[in-house]
What does this fold into?
Amino acid sequence: MTKPVGIGLVGAGAYGEFCLAAFSQMPEVSIAAVADVNHERAQQLADQYHARAYPNLEGLLNDADVEVVALNTPPNLHAPQGLAALNAGKHLFCEKPLALTVEDAQKLIDTANAKGLRLTVDYVMRQNPFWAFAASLAHSGVLGTLRHMDLANHAAGLSLPANHWFWNPALSGGIWIEHGVHFFDAFAWVAGGEGQILGSAAYQHGDGATDRVECLARYGDAAAHFYHGFDQSSQTEQTTVTLTFEQGYVTLREWVPTSIEVLTPVDDTLWSNLLPRTVEYTTLDDGRRLARAYAPEGKSVVYTRAIQDGMRQLAAAVRDPQASLTVTGEQGLASLRMAVATTSLASDK
Ligand SMILES: NC(=O)c1ccc[n+]([C@@H]2O[C@H](COP(=O)([O-])OP(=O)(O)OC[C@H]3O[C@@H](n4cnc5c(N)ncnc54)[C@H](O)[C@@H]3O)[C@@H](O)[C@H]2O)c1
It folds into this structure.
């Protein structure tokens, strides 16, 4: 058996803790080190996983057992810390966004290539079975041409305190760069090519922070609309993605989808084999078939598996340079390009 790949996680915050729990269940990797400027926090999580704690990135980069850096710090640090990790000879599992600017994202890709290191972005949608089904269905052409894609992401922003880095565009890049990149990438996957931003708007709440954004885009001949509102609570949050084809509708629910619905008059023997997980069928009065596939294990399990799949692919690529990655730096860059374009379009107004 090959030696488990050593992970050094930098940024032991809320999501870092979730990722460590996911990595700790994987035989392909071992948690070697945890770093955080809040050293007590790093120590606490390092102790939990029998790893070494460091008060900064530099200490962790000098640890020979660290082969992959999992970068879980706020977005403005991804480029400088990612470059430092690559320059120290470490592979990179980067949280989204890859960087705040297209230029910095390109620099990360170029540095990884120049040094023969692997780099991936934690785009959990790319590892989600329901998004994978939506993409396969679109690519199969069985429902006809893709006409329209719509995202309504009503997120639990009310749980983020006013001084959280998320609300500061200098630290987060703003909603499009911090969060929207997931969906620009997922829509590009379904549509089979990069999109183009046509128009954008931003809405501010009382203290001037942008809490809602929307944009119009096109992916080839498919129209797209994205809306993110960080103005809901954990009790009222809801996310719906609707994909409209010539011959049917596909609906994904929750921001990390745990279900998908297909409504179409097309004979289900032509597409039901692509559906993941538990499936229920209903025949409507007009004869259309409604299929609903869902993950009864729920969001946390689906989310954890997606993180593990991304890390598993990177660990395999670290041991075998020929192994391919589902999420490449180029995909991180393409979606960031759209996020940067819509951010600057909205702020021009
Ligand atoms: N892929 C996903 O689904 C997903 C989900 C949530 C968050 N994220 C991303 O994960 C990252 C972290 O988000 P979070 O919600 O955990 O944030 P957080 O604020 O909870 O955690 C960030 C941690 O980084 C530490 N930190 C700050 N500066 C540092 C430095 N210079 N060196 C070392 N540590 C430093 C902080 O002390 C904190 O513990 C963000 O990039 C976010 O976009 C990704």
Notes: Residues 127-297+340-347 form a domain with the Dihydrodipicolinate Reductase; domain 2 fold (CATH 3.30.360.10).
